[in-house]
Amino acid sequence: MKNKFLDLLHPRYWPTWLSLGILYLITKLSYRLQLQFGKNLGRISYYLLKRFRHIGEINLKLCFPELSNKERTNLLKKQFQSLGMGLIESAMAWWMPDHKIDSLIHVDGLEHLQEAISRKKGVLILSGHFTSLDICGRLFSSIFPMYVVYREQKNQVIDRLLKQHRQFKWMQPIHRHAIRQIIKTLKQNKAIWYAADQDYGPTHSIFSPFFNISTATISTPSRYASRTGATVVTLFYHRLPKGEGYQITIGPILENFAQGNDYQDMLCFNQLLEQAVRAHPEQYLWIHRRFKTRPQGEPYLY
């Protein structure tokens, strides 16, 4: 363990440690000033992060063909501002005390989650990657404890930080490949948060429409629910304007989920996710290569 920590002090991680130190200091500012700082950081990043800007441009062109080039450019600029705020919000989630942020949460549909837990079969909470993920995860888990399925980060300092803080604030994080642990946790009538909206390649994925684009969609949530009998709900979230906090919305129980048709299950999820994205498009994670994996014979899009 000691050697692993010493590895994190390698010079290649010094820029990461410096950045984290700056983020920690920023969390000492008022909430509104922190958001404004993040917004300005996003404005600058739009011009500096050309690779991510390129990915965002392609995604928005694919998903919003009805918009003009100018409208998509404006939307992408807002996306980067939202990303900047999301970075600062992650720091808030890691380091700000509860009494400073607990009042920022607004929840609708909690009764659906309570009903799901009362069925005593475990709850699979399907969600997606929006820019305020970490802060909303921390805020919501303070009123409803849950596990979170995570994907390891390439930067070991960031990976360790995320796991430690999510374990402290969210409950135990579970690696996405820990299939037995996920199944065991659901059978213990626990709630697991699972974001099913990233491209993990063709293995364990099916192609399902998302914004009318054939999209590689991981089908493991359907199989987890089928195998355990877990109750399935959706949870989507967004940042409110004018520093008013965050809205978290739990959808009704998906009664027809896990009835033996993985395609229909994930089509249902993609449709609900698309509705949430269209409501607040600038807050979705458009810099992810969501359409990287293509059906056989289709060209690479990025």
UniProtKB/TrEMBL annotation:
Subcellular location: Cell inner membrane
Placement of sequence motif HXXXXD motif: 129-134
InterPro entries in UniProt: LipA_acyltrans, Lipid_A_LpxL_LpxP
Catalytic activity as recorded in UniProt: an alpha-Kdo-(2->4)-alpha-Kdo-(2->6)-lipid IVA + a fatty acyl-[ACP] = an alpha-Kdo-(2->4)-alpha-Kdo-(2->6)-(acyl)-lipid IVA + holo-[ACP]
Membrane topology: Single-pass membrane protein
GO biological process, one term: lipopolysaccharide biosynthetic process
Gene designation: lpxL
Domain of life (superkingdom): Bacteria
Protein name stated in the entry: Lipid A biosynthesis acyltransferase
Family: Belongs to the LpxL/LpxM/LpxP family.
Source organism of the structure: Candidatus Rickettsiella isopodorum
A cellular component annotation (GO) from this entry: plasma membrane
EC number: 2.3.1.241
Keywords associated with the record: Acyltransferase, Cell inner membrane, Cell membrane, Lipopolysaccharide biosynthesis, Membrane, Transferase, Transmembrane, Transmembrane helix
